[in-house]
Amino acid sequence: MSSTPTLDKITTPSLSHDSIDDTKITSSSSAIEDKTRARTSSGAGTVVAGEQEETTNKNSFGEGEKGGVEAVDRSNETEAEREHREREEAREKKYLTGSKLALVFIAMLLSVFLIALDQTIVATALPVIASEFQALDQITWIISAYFLTQAPLILVYGQVLTIFPTRWVFGVAIFLFEIGSIICGASLSSEVLIFGRAFAGVGAAGIFVSVLAIIGEITRIEDRPKLFGGFGAVFALSSVIGPLLGGAFTDAAYWGWRLCFLINVPIGLVTLVAIYFFIESTPPPGQDPNETRSSLRRFAELDWIGSILILGVTTCLILPLQEGGISKPWDDKSVIAELCVFGVLVVVFVAWEWRRGPKAILPMSLFRRRSMVGACIVSFFLMFVMLSGTYYLPLFYQAVKEHSPTKSGVDILGFMLSVVLCSMLAGVVISMTGYYWPFLVFGPIITPIGGGLLYTIDVHTGSGALIGYQILLGAGVGLSFQNTVVAIQAEFHSTPELVAQATALGTFFQLIGGVIGISISGTLFNNQLASELSKLGVSSEIIEGVKASVKTIFALDADLKELVLSGYVKALNPVFIVAVPAGIIATLGGLLVKSYNLKKMGGLANLGPA
């Protein structure tokens, strides 16, 4: 993108869209007047503000040698205009292009691949792990320990990124994730494995938030949709590759299931090397250059009480959702107690954050922007649908088609590839046009169509129809999945100091949406399965056996097997129909998001008031 300003480029964005606020319009008008005076001044446009000002202008925008505006008279520049210009010039210097950007982006994709893969790779290895440690009753903890630390610490990292350089926060997060992976790979008991999973979650929380913050710092806003589309594709791809790799590693003769965790070590080292050589260590965006407090003192002044409260809130939410209706009934005393404590802690947390104001781990002022609220709604419900489909579509193939867990991962390629390709397509189109709002509104509308069609499947539904329904469901998710991040960063483009915390908040809602989605889907499936099989006259012993493992179905005689399979598929139907209200609510959330044009916003941002 050329940085040489012309009158056309200046005039068009300042007249067109509600995305440009009054400050930027005023700055753009000042830029037109300054540049017009410079062109009409005596001689060849000699600089009025002095030789030093001319040198600064040439270095910032690459003009003079290309025949553009040679000098700008800034004698009438206001203090606000000067601060805006200096901020944008500093931002411009941090942008990467070409091969350097490509290398950094590949390193970012690898790090995102790590944390996304870690969510799914253990799925096929869990039975073997539970058998080796004789800890079948601790499977839930092995799964949830990763999320228990990851979810609340996302918001903590969002505040840490306002104090320390992104490069170092990212590096520390990867290091912690690597240590957690090594602990998991070397564990000799289920307790150590659970601890390692929780430790890895501490690093995973910082990796993704740091990646999004780095992309916001090193790229122009109009170029980011393509990159964020790549992240969405990596998340979807890891959901397919994860179970396949988990099965392959578990069957390995020497290391076995431990490779599921140790594979993170070499990939993480590559990422660490890339960020060390290609990303500069610069102060966080928006940090006061006259700041006299040390980083250690500012670290001590973080919202630690808010951090503890959000840890309690997420723990008391995730635990009952993991247990209720699955390992324990919903009316169990411990489940009820956890939900009650969750409600109390939410009230206390909100009151504390409101009192802390801008120093809070979750500034309440973020929710005053409707784009922030809308993006959080879209993120929540799309992740809800995506993880529900990822976990429960394979169950259909394992039960009805008698496919192995690994083969069922291949069976849902229609869903996953649809998410991948549509995510990448949306990123390219947004980069070309500058508009992301249509994808947030019209993308989720496709999701209810796919979910409604999957609700109609039965034991005899053909492969072509199943693949088609999967593609529709995946397209609705993929077209919008990562564009919520684009919307958030566009909303806070003029206040870069809030980008990290706003992005962390969107990521937090995305993760919580996935956890709640899996929980609701699991509860619906288990309750409906028992109900449907009971209606068909199946004995309680067989019902319990089917709930424990689909392999129980394969041992039944032909007539009973056909009966159980019909009930099994009917139990899956409610899981898929949930995509209908989820997609509708996501669409309504998209309507709250403001429609900015990234190209015009980027043009003004790059130009500044000069």
Commentary on this structure:
The structure is a single chain. The chain is mostly helical. The protein has three domains: 7-77, no CATH class; 91-302 and 361-526 and 578-601, MFS general substrate transporter like domains (Growth Hormone, Chain: A); 303-360. 74% of the residues lie in helices and 0% in strands. Helix 5 (98-118) crosses helix 10 (224-250), helix 7 (139-160) packs parallel to helix 9 (190-218) and helix 7 (139-160) packs antiparallel against helix 14. 49% of the residues are buried. The model is unreliable at 1-70 and 603-610 (pLDDT under 50).
Give a brief rundown of this model.
The protein has 610 residues and is mainly alpha-helical. It has 27 helices and no strands. Helix 14 (304-323) packs parallel to helix 22 (499-535), helix 19 (437-454) runs antiparallel to helix 20 and helix 21 runs antiparallel to helix 22 (499-535).
Number of strands: 0
Rg from Cα:
26 Å
> Main beta sheet: strand number and arrangement?
none
Strand content: under 5%
CATH architecture of the largest domain: Up-down Bundle
Question: What is the 3D shape?
Answer: globular
What would the CATH topology of the largest domain be? Growth Hormone, Chain: A
Mean pLDDT: 78
Q: How far from one another are the termini?
A: 18 Å
The CATH class label of the largest domain is: Mainly Alpha
